[in-house]
Write a structure and sequence with these properties.
The protein contains eleven helices and seven strands.
Length: 302
Amino acid sequence: MLKIDLKGKIAFIAGIGDDGGFGWAIAKALAEAGATILVGTWTPIYKIFTQSLNTGKFDESRRLSDGSMLEFAKIYALDAMFDKPDDVPQDVKDNKRYRDNEGYTISEVAEKVKNDFGHIDYFIHSLANAPEVKKPLLETSRQGYLAAMSSSSYSFVSLLAYFGPLMNKGGAALTLSYIASERVVPKYGGGMGSAKAALECDTRQLAWEAGRKYQIRVNTISAGPLPSRAAKAIGMIDSMIEYSKMNAPLTKEFEAEEVATTAAFLLSPLASAITGVTLYVDNGMHAMGVAVDSAILNSITS
């Protein structure tokens, strides 16, 4: 039986803020395989996240299969909207949720990781944000659109540019996408679909560039809908989950762990020749061209 063994490997996961998203599930899967886990948490929720960990709020979901607890070797405050300290506006620096944290830009966090651990093997980009996500694209402002692209897409480019030099040869980077990158998903607005499309395009380009420059692999998982905190901000996640269950080839519940185990495989040496790929983990929903729960088409479901 093939087994994923990541003992001695170090993974940095950008975007964990609670125990309900893909980032948390990926952390658990990599920890199960023996990897050391580093986390970058959005600066405004850094204190809340660390306090929740310390007070045992996440203890039930931290438990691994052998009874031990998921541990993070270090948690860094990270705001992926800013590459360098000079990029941070004064009003952000003065915000009470930022004042207690220092060195939260991408370049500074990369330098901290270098000083603390010397190198990493895996980088996982599990973050996205669009301030106008509830607005149709036609009503999205330029500022809102560019914010979505910056936070959800360019952040992957920038993080890999700074973390790439820290990554051992044979390592891998991974990001997370959604079918809205190539299909219309009404109400998934604010430029998020555009950002996911850019993310998948960048994955292919980065696979070439980072492959040649750092000898690492770069892939994307296009995941099915999950009721995470971030997804709930969109306001329609429950409907998307039900739609997928009714129309995907596989009608079972979609679980974050299915993305996590796929991530562990893609990052591991078992996937040593796989790069530049967008891999669908969505119960097959991406393959469908019609909604079979439509009353007009109900005759073909039997």
